[in-house]
Amino acid sequence: MMKLIHMEKQKFLTEDKFPVLPWHSLDIDSVIAKLNTDHERDLSIQEATSRLQEYGTNTLQSTHKVHWYRILTRQFADVLIWILLVAAAISLVIGALGDAITIMVIFLLTACSASSRKGRPKSLLKL
Length: 127
Known about the structure:
By secondary structure, this protein is mainly alpha-helical. The protein is 54% helix and 5% strand.
């Protein structure tokens, strides 16, 4: 199976198969020559089977799943969340229960909204 190794900022090297090349800047004929293919006809069944066995399927590697509660707890690293929590605590201490409840609702909505925004792209990649 073909594995990618990150070499520099935007350059990748496939293990022992292709040299590091700026593929995006090569002209079409150079790419076709380097990949040993033909742009006018499809790969033969034999060549496709050979490449499938050599490189593996063209799929993304799955990573470990990040659970929703971990994403939610990461929201506590945000300074604004801590400001809201301190404001809610101060409101409770001075007896402004309505303000404390309002701030906690804002806190929960903010944390849940940010968590869902961060979790959504990861779930879309699974499609």
